[in-house]
Amino acid sequence: MRKNDKDSKATVCIHEGQQIAEYGGINTPIYTSTSYAYLDTDDRLYPRYFNIPNQQAVIEKVAGLEGAETGLVFSSGMAAISSVIFGLVKKGDHCVFQKGLYGGTMHFITDELDKFGIEYTVTENNNPETFEKAIRKNTRVIYVESPSNPLLLSTDLERVSRICRDQNCISVIDNTFASPINQNPVKLGIDIVLHSATKYLGGHSDICAGVVVGNSTLIDSIRNNALSMGGSLNALMCSLL
After folding, report:
1. Residue 6 placed within a domain
2. Residue 219 included in any domain
3. What is the CATH classification number for the domain harbouring 144?
4. Catalytic residue (choose from 31, 61, 120, 174)
5. In what order do the strands lie in the sheet with 94-97?
6. Whether 199 is catalytic
7. Measuring CA to CA, how many Å separate 135 from each of 67, 92, 141, 143?
8. Domain for residue 165, yes or no?
9. N or C: which end of the chain has fewer CB within 10 A?
10. In terms of residue numbers, what domain contains 231?
């Protein structure tokens, strides 16, 4: 950690999202409640609403590491991926997916999107020009994974984000393999960053989780869908993460 640098990655990992309890413990307490007082509060706290204290602690930490506004924490990487796609597109929309995505993501795309009338194109390669050529009038999302799992294919994120801005599309990246320590796609113009936190964010091969971060407007759209799909993460797993 760099001395006197309150924004260093190490400092954010430790302190961002930290909630000091009544007794002054340095760790955020684990709030296992599913019921909270609500009569005199603005929020209705509930685990499935993605707003309990331990969920917020995780999100503030990952959003801080990625340089994003806010986000959501999920019960798996695939819960995060499916909630992002279904939260951003609807029947009649079109998505562009890069070649070589994680197998679970590809299975979701090929097995589920047709059922909901969502069109998609999987690129032949990961050159930015290929993404641009795949865009249609109804293209809503361009989805990449860089480096990819497991072949470590890389994509020019800055050029993809520029294409998305020019074509009024939403850019989404699976940043699992790089992690926020090695790559921050938001700084390159990417709109939504997601992780299978089961891997490097969890780090110990003992939890299953997913995280999505981005700007508050897009996260609100994803949350609206996620509320119905129910893939939230419980307080104990949030604390382990």
Report:
1. no
2. yes
3. 3.40.640.10
4. 174
5. 70-74, 210-214, 192-196, 170-174, 139-145, 94-97, 119-122
6. yes
7. 28, 14, 9, 12
8. yes
9. N
10. 70-240
